[in-house]
Amino acid sequence: MAEYRLSDVEVGKNYKAKELDSFVSTTDVVVLSNNESQLFTEPEREYKVVDTFEGFFEHSSDDGEKYFRNKKTYIVEKV
């Protein structure tokens, strides 16, 4: 899968699931998809990167607090 290795993705561009799989495997990011857990089930399916954020808030079940996680986050949609 080395030929699909991406170091970055761009908003507005389409990528195959196998490319996003490689990106997620080699980069510390979060990817949110509109097709739930099926993002990587069809390697040739294309997804469009529709938005990106520098991080997100997460609720801790340990102490009930909300914490901002400074982790690049991408939203993708099936094409």
How does this model look, in words?
The protein is mainly beta and 79 residues long. It has one domain (10-78). Helix content is 13%, strand content 37%. It is built from 1 helix and 6 strands, in the order βαβββββ. Strands 1-3-6-2 form a 4-stranded mixed beta sheet. Strands 4-5 form a two-stranded antiparallel sheet. A hairpin with a 6-residue loop joins strand 4 and strand 5. The mean pLDDT is 92.
Bulk shape: elongated
Order of helices and strands: EHEEEEE
Radius of gyration: 14 Å
Strand order of the largest sheet: 1-3-6-2
Kindly give the count of domains.
Answer: 1
Helix % is 10-25%
- Give the integer mean of the pLDDT values: 92
List how many beta strands DSSP finds: 6
Largest sheet: 4 strands, mixed
Point out poorly predicted stretches.
Answer: none
**What's the tally of helices?**
1
- Give the terminus-to-terminus CA distance: 22 Å
Structural class: mainly beta
Tell me the strand percentage band. 35-45%
